[in-house]
Specification:
It contains ten helices and ten strands. With 291 residues, it is of the alpha/beta class. The protein folds into three domains: 3-81, Orthogonal Bundle (Arc Repressor Mutant, subunit A), CATH 1.10.10.10; 90-157 and 259-290, 3-Layer(aba) Sandwich (D-Maltodextrin-Binding Protein, domain 2); 158-257, D-Maltodextrin-Binding Protein, domain 2, CATH 3.40.190.10. Helix 1 (3-15) packs across helix 3 (29-43) and helix 1 (3-15) crosses helix 4.
């Protein structure tokens, strides 16, 4: 069995379908299906259950997945070692919450590629969890430290969240005198059934009677809604502070949460991945006060 067979297997496992794997690999569907059949014949086992809407790993497939990921890591390490004396190059994908990814990280990425012109950075700033084992990202910025899996986590920083509103909203409805008055105001929050982590379920820490009149499933969207006068929302300090369109509400009350960088154990020794992870830590450390 060669590495190309394992590479095709990994692509199918990560995309959950032969067609998606074929597109990602730049091969046609028939070629990928034929190579998978040949691999299963060589191993004398069935790696996937074929379904009408995709594929699902069998027990044997789950076992082979770990072996294939080890092969992949060895291949990546060997490729990088062959260019050990050259500039850092290649693609690194970063998955991040939208607030951190758009408001903080995106404006600072030009510095990274100026330092290392051979790098290609893919930033995916969306409110969702990323599977590092399926290589949806090389580095994930998360709101919680992972408790399981072959993952290596490093704390980036604590950050604050507080209540904010627009001047226009406060002119019409007044400033609440205390947290007990929040239910009488129009409130902005998350779409409850789309919360991708319990770390975002924090409205009750400000008011047990919190009811969002306007619910937006992203931090950036909530910030824009509050700035436009939608109501009082719980916003990130690093996004709201210094914004003339946003006014702190009851600033003595705030929450503290944390950002973590998480890398799959198989990738942490790759120079380009380690370099990008160090860059994230450097940028946050340089501007920690804003969080």
């Amino acid at each position: 069995m060669n590495w190309d067979d394992a590479r095709i297997f990994l692509a199918i496992a990560r995309h959950g379908q032969i067609l998606g794997a074929a597109k990602a690999l730049g091969l046609n569907h028939a070629t990928v299906a034929r190579r998978l059949n040949a691999l299963e014949t060589a191993l004398n086992t069935t790696l996937f259950r074929r379904k009408t809407n995709g594929t699902e790993l069998t027990t044997e497939g789950e076992g082979f997945l770990e072996f294939a990921e080890i092969m992949e890591s060895a291949s990546l390490a060997a490729t990088e070692a062959s260019g050990a004396d050259s500039a850092v190059a290649g693609t690194v994908r970063i998955g991040a919450p939208d607030g951190f990814g758009v408001a903080f990280l995106a404006p600072r990425l030009p510095l990274l590629v100026e330092r290392h012109p051979g790098l290609r950075i893919e930033l995916v700033p969306v409110p969702r969890a990323f599977s590092l084992s399926r290589r949806e990202a090389d580095i994930a910025v998360t709101l919680e430290r992972p408790r399981e899996g072959r993952l290596v986590a490093r704390k980036l920083t604590d950050y604050r969240l507080g209540l904010y509103a627009s001047n226009a909203y406060l002119d019409r409805h007044g400033m609440p005198a205390g947290l007990g008055e929040l239910p009488r105001h129009r409130l902005v929050g998350y779409v409850d059934d789309l919360l991708y982590t319990q770390s975002l379920d924090y409205t009750a820490e400000f008011s047990k009677d919190w009811r969002s009149a306007i619910a937006v499933s992203s931090a950036m969207g909530q910030t824009e809604a509050v700035r436009a006068g939608a109501g009082i929302g719980i916003l990130h300090k690093f996004m709201a502070s210094g914004d003339s369109g946003l006014v702190p509400v009851l600033p003595a009350h705030f929450l503290t949460r944390s950002y973590w960088t998480v890398v799959h154990e198989d990738l942490r020794s790759l120079r380009r991945v380690a370099l990008v992870a160090d860059f994230l830590a450097e940028m946050v450390a340089n501007e920690r006060a804003m969080f």
